[in-house]
Amino acid sequence: MVEVWDKDMVTDDDIIGRSCWCFVPKELLPSTAAGGGMLGTDSSWGRVPVQVKLGHPRKSNKPMGVVELEVSFRPSQRCGPPAMMGPVRFRQHLSPAAGVLTGHWGNADTMCFSTYKLFLMHTSSIFKDVRCPWNKQYDKAVTIFKNPLMLSTVRTQHSSLYATHMGVTRFGVLTSPEDFFSLFKFGQRGGQRRYFTYTLLEESLRCSETGAAFFSDMMSKHAMHAGGEEEVLYAGEFCIVPDQAAVAGHKLVIDNNSGTYAPDKDKLCLMHDLFKANFPDMIVEVVAVGDEKLKFYQQQCPSRAGVQGKQPQQQKQQT
Question: Tens digit of pLDDT for each residue in 193-215?
């Protein structure tokens, strides 16, 4: 099925066109249909012309045009439910107001704080039934999830920072490690390396720059990225480190540094597998909380200098 939506600045967006089709292998079609040139010479694949008639969202008798598509198909190599195979799509949400409050300067000499959503492939097949509920031994998590007012505030903050608006939201696709690193400016802002807080949900990986500064860190809490969800698939922080041996000249270093969800370090390898599945040429290094190497990487980032990841039970991880 394909849908066409309009984009409204004040009211809700509307569906102005929708069309459905069914893929039928050539050998299952009646002989008269199979003889046509539409499906090509190989009986295992074909092409389907699709017309999407557009109409006014509130005036059903007012046509708005037609979008013509041609959809190609071939049998899946593996049996199973339908799954998106790529490329990785992203949304970058730009918030000038949050940029002023956090002191984040963008590339155009304007203050702008960015949050990101990456729609990664293969998340369900890699993480299966792995889930990280909020950490009931972590004081800040208890404050958020046991207090309806605080939880509502976190969800409101999420809605504000992840709102999609014309002119302040970027959309695109990532087809290589270079694309990924470029989206995050190769892990630098203002000439200094930066750390990013991430939360992984089934639908997307959400992240933003984090730091040791109080208000900046408040804007980067894992609970905020998760929209106040009581459990996530995984959470932590990542940074981008130069690596001359890497194809893209950089590598991704990712950890499990989250006090709010306290992810199991033994499952950190799944984050490695997830990124490798989406970006096969990417060099991915995973470093668990408590590893001396994590302290080394944090010391390379001025915003994280002096901030070390701690074991979850010590309640000192970043939120």
Answer: 889 999 999 999 999 988 645 34
Taking the CB of residue 205, how many other CB atoms lie within 10 A of it?
25
Q: How many CB atoms lie within 10 A of CB 43?
A: 13
How many whole angstroms separate alpha carbon 251 and alpha carbon 284?
A: 6
**Cα 117 from Cα 204, distance rounded (Å):** 6
Residue with tokens 């750390």, as numbered in its chain: 195
Strands (E) located in the chain: 2-5, 15-19, 46-55, 63-73, 88-95, 113-119, 132-133, 169-174, 188-189, 192-193, 195-200, 205-210, 231-232, 234-242, 250-254, 284-286
Taking the complete model, does pTM exceed 0.90, yes or no? no
Burial 256-292 (b: 16+ CB within 10 A, else e): bbbbbbbbebebbebbbebbbebbeebbbebbbbbee
According to the model, what pLDDT value does residue 57 have?
Answer: 80
CB contact at 8 A, 198 and 225: yes
Residue with tokens 């849908």: 3
Question: How is residue 216 written in tokens?
Answer: 């900046």
Beta carbons within 10 angstroms of residue 147's beta carbon: 12
115 close to 208: Cβ distance less than 8 angstroms: yes
Beta-strand pair 250-254/284-286: parallel
pLDDT by residue (tens digit) across 77-106? 666 776 777 799 999 988 755 544 445 445
CA distance linking residue 48 with residue 23, whole number of Å? 8
Regarding predicted confidence, which is higher, 31 or 256? 256
Farthest CA pair distance, the chain: 74
Of 273, 211, 286, which is closest to residue 241 (Cα–Cα)?
Answer: 286
* Statement: residue 278 has pLDDT above 60: yes
Strands 63-73 and 46-55 come out as antiparallel
